[in-house]
Amino acid sequence: MLDAIIIGSGPAGLSAAIYAKRAGLEVIVIEKVYYGTGQVAESSQVDNYLGFAGINGYELGAKFREHAVSLGVEFQSAEVNGLESVDGGWKVQCSNGECLEARAVIYAAGAKHRHLEVEGEDIFAGKGVSYCATCDGAFFKGKDTIVVGGGNTAMDDTLYLSDICSKVYLLHRRKEFRGSARTLERIRQKENIEIVTEAKISKIIGDSTVSGAVLEDGRTIKAEGIFVAVGMIPQTEKIKGIAELDESGYVIADETGKTKAEGFFVAGDVRKKALRQIVTAVSDGANAAVSAAEWLSHVKFHIKEIGE
Ligand code: NAP
């Protein structure tokens, strides 16, 4: 039986892995996507991670990964199908048919993109509708695009696309933006960005690919690309019934990552908290690994005592 299974290879999972490895634990990281590194890889530019001002997100993710690999952290490429508590630990069933067992689990599965859930969104996904400007922006060189959302992701995506596309519409359902005032100021200074507030898409239209969006007030905005950046949904469906979740599906745990389930720790964006950033994910990973190591030392001591 392993000491710990870490689920997720974003900044939280990788940080947990290096702290666990340095604490002498036998661990494995399970990741859904080979070389995952999570949402950080989708960021064109990260300006607020201490010591790395302006670094490309993919590059930062690669550095995190290299660090973990250099310490001998092992990875398993698979989706987690199910988790169950077994005698003395946890059993994790993977999509590749493997079944892993460990005394502790550090759950750092992150969050997935929220969808608009409007007509045409699913039909045109990958045909003009995208959830990652950094990944798909280059396909829209010289074209008109729409970014939907009012948070930092939508605002960063808008700036990024404005250097590639001929015009970018930033469409937000309210008047006030949730994202940083400084970024909004930079957006306002760009001539090829048009901000459209109090606007909700009712339908995405097109033929074989996207040609525009119809708003609830009846207006149509013509665009060949629609970038949806309306927040994230925590990946906690698989752990319902194991850890306590809040009304939005985030795991309730303090900064130690300890949950109500014995030997089950959480870290990163899946945890209920005020600020979801790379720095808080990295910090969560460290905290969860240290908590898990402490908990394991008690468990091992207890097992030894019973055995004697
Ligand atoms: P977010 O802050 O939750 O913003 C989501 C935006 O989408 C909100 O403006 C929300 O509108 C809008 N929205 C939600 N559902 C919608 C729907 N069905 N239709 C239309 N609009 C909808 O999400 P995020 O921008 O992905 O950011 C997540 C976290 O990462 C935040 O803490 C953010 O600060 C952080 N982040 C930081 C950076 C950076 O510092 N460079 C970059 C990216 C992300 P309302 O405002 O009306 O609710």
Overview of this protein structure:
The protein has helices spanning 11-22, 57-70, 133-136, 152-162, 181-188, 278-307; strands at 2-7, 27-31, 74-77, 80-86, 89-94, 99-107, 111-113, 129-130, 144-148, 167-171, 193-196, 201-206, 210-215, 220-222, 225-228, 232-234, 264-266. It contains six helices and 17 strands.
What binds here, in terms of ligands, is: NADP nicotinamide-adenine-dinucleotide phosphate
Give the ordered list of helices and strands: EHEHEEEEEEHEHEHEEEEEEEH
SSE-based structural type: alpha/beta
Rounded to the nearest angstrom, the radius of gyration is 21 Å
What is the distance, rounded to the nearest whole angstrom, between the alpha carbons of the first and last residues?
Answer: 20 Å
Question: Mean pLDDT, as a whole number?
Answer: 94
Shape: elongated
Largest sheet: 7 strands, mixed
How many helical stretches?
6
- Stretches where pLDDT is under 50 for at least 5 consecutive residues are none
Give the helix level as a range of percent.
25-40%
Count of individual beta strands: 17
Strand content: 25-35%
